[in-house]
Amino acid sequence: MKSLLFIAAHPDDETFVAGGTIAKCVSEGATVTLACGTRGERGKTAGLVSADKLPQVREQELREATAILGVSAVHFLGYTDRQLGEAPVDEMRRKLVALIRQTRPEVVITFDAHGYNLHPDHMAISRFTSDALPAAADGRWFRELGAPHQVKRLLWTRPVPPFRLHDLPEIAEIPAMPGADFIIDIEPWAEKKKAALHAYQTQKLSLEPIFFATPEAARHFRTEVFRLAIGPRPATVPAHDLFVL
């Protein structure tokens, strides 16, 4: 069975980056697992909840969103929002290696090295993921955590983030864009992505303007784009299947 692991920094990362792709993979029989570095406890509240209740609420929002998308399991890594880069390296490596060896994904998705929008937590989870993948494949690391596993492909977020809506190319222009190595048609799963985004009510003041406020935002529900970081390039680029060789 095909297996995908998304390694995120905060609740909602998985949906705005790859919600349609996740739903598509699940519909085609793949198992999708999510690891989330924090509970987003320093994010916005939209006036719906007190700051002390925000971690529990955002966790529940994430569980609702991932249930809509069909994610099989959610693993919280237990670190602090906006301080993810301060997580102990050895401890984080152990947690991610354990998860990779347990779930044995063919493909892992995380943020690019610059964190998509220079968010320090996004950059940190990218760094931790790149550190964990070769460790998971090397049996000398953490022998007690199970058999080594070599992930076939690490994918990064698209070259132009959704926050820069006016810089996003039109659909017909995307194949020529450097870094558009995988272009996934998500229109059949657009309603699932919309519903998952709406699950994040505490974050609506940030998400609504990007994904729903203008006619141009409809582009976010047509395709999702990923950049190849590690692993074999598909025979045809851009490819339209994360698992294709």
Task: Explain how this protein is built.
The chain contains seven helices and seven strands; from the N terminus they run βαβαβαβααββααβ. The two termini are 16 Å apart. Helices cover 35% and strands 17% of the residues. It has a seven-stranded mixed beta sheet, sandwiched between helices. It has a single domain (3-230), classed as LmbE-like (Rossmann fold), CATH 3.40.50.10320. Strand 2, helix 2 and strand 3 (73-79) form a beta-alpha-beta unit. It is globular and about 50 Å long. The longest helix is centred in the middle third of the chain and has 18 residues, at 120-137. With 245 residues, the protein is of the alpha/beta class. The model has no long low-confidence stretch (mean pLDDT 95). It has helices spanning 13-27, 54-69, 89-103, 115-118, 120-137, 190-198, 204-211; strands at 3-8, 31-38, 73-79, 107-110, 153-157, 182-185, 223-230. Helix 1 runs antiparallel to helix 6 (190-198) and helix 2 packs antiparallel against helix 6.
List the helices and strands and how they pair.
Elements: E1 3-8, H1 13-27, E2 31-38, H2 54-69, E3 73-79, H3 89-103, E4 107-110, H4 115-118, H5 120-137, E5 153-157, E6 182-185, H6 190-198, H7 204-211, E7 223-230
Parallel strand pairs: 1-2, 1-4, 2-3, 4-5
Antiparallel strand pairs: 5-7, 6-7
Order of helices and strands: EHEHEHEHHEEHHE
CATH architecture: 3-Layer(aba) Sandwich
Strand fraction band? 15-25%
- The level of helicity is 25-40%
Continuous helix count: 7
What is the CATH homologous superfamily assignment? LmbE-like
What oligomeric state do the depicted chains represent? single chain
| Radius of gyration, taken over Cα atoms and rounded to an integer in Å | 17 Å
Specify the CATH class.
Alpha Beta
Give the end-to-end Cα distance, rounded to a whole number of Å: 16 Å
Overall geometric form: globular
Largest sheet: 7 strands, mixed
Number of domains: 1
CATH topology grouping: Rossmann fold
Strand-pairing-aware structural class:
alpha/beta
**What's the number of extended β-strand segments?**
7
